[in-house]
Amino acid sequence: MTDCTQSKLPSIVEKVLNQIEERVHKTTNKQITDEDLLTLHSIFGGVLQRALDIIEKYPTFVTYSTANKTRELIEIKGENDRCYRVFPRINFCPCLAFKHQVLEKKTQISCKHILAARIQQILGKTVNHDVTHDQYLMLVKSMFDLEDENNG
Questions:
Q1: CB neighbours of 125 closer than 8 A, spacing ≥ 6?
Q2: DSSP 3-state assignment of 13?
Q3: What confidence score (pLDDT) does residue 3 get?
Q4: Longest dimension (CA), the chain
Q5: pLDDT tens, residue by residue, 127-137
Q6: What predicted TM-score, i.e. pTM, was given to this entire model?
Q7: What is the DSSP letter of 124?
């Protein structure tokens, strides 16, 4: 795989996810089709199954947003009841898998937490909690406290 191909892959993945989102929003049952799942599996491999396992265990995710939804975070429960928070549509997670598989080894496009969050957004399975700007900043800070804890 060339550097050019690797740099384009995230935009292609986002395009696929956006197409799935458009299709889901046009349907009455708001479901991802088997064809969509096959497409996602061809992109994400085993990460998709791990993301679906999270969704099955926690069918609704919490989104924290400031006034007018100018800033948002999605909270995903992980193993051992640890919470991960990710920014919608941004490929970054403080989990160890993201650090090792995505950033260091470059063997995955993303982690299960980001994919699970994106799928839940597509399906409309998030519950919003309004927070103040200061509360939002504390939530963001806690993301990086977790990252420091993982590195310690």
A1: 55, 59, 60, 61
A2: helix
A3: 45
A4: 48
A5: 999 999 999 99
A6: 0.87
A7: T
CB 146 within 8 A of CB 78: no
Distance between CA atoms of residues 40 and 34, nearest Å:
10
- 121 pLDDT band, cuts 50/70/90, is very high
DSSP string spanning 15-49?
A: HHHHHHHHHHHHSSS----HHHHHHHHHHHTHHHH
Residue whose tokens read 């046009």: 26
CA gap 69, 84 in Å, rounded? 20
Cβ 130 vs Cβ 67: under 8 Å: yes
Residue 94 and residue 78: Cα distance in Å, rounded? 12
Look-up of token digits 């099955």: 56
Decide if 78 contacts 95 (C-beta within 8 A).
yes
Query: Could you read off the pLDDT of 21-73 as tens digits, one per residue?
Result: 999 999 988 899 999 999 999 999 999 999 999 999 999 999 999 998 899 99
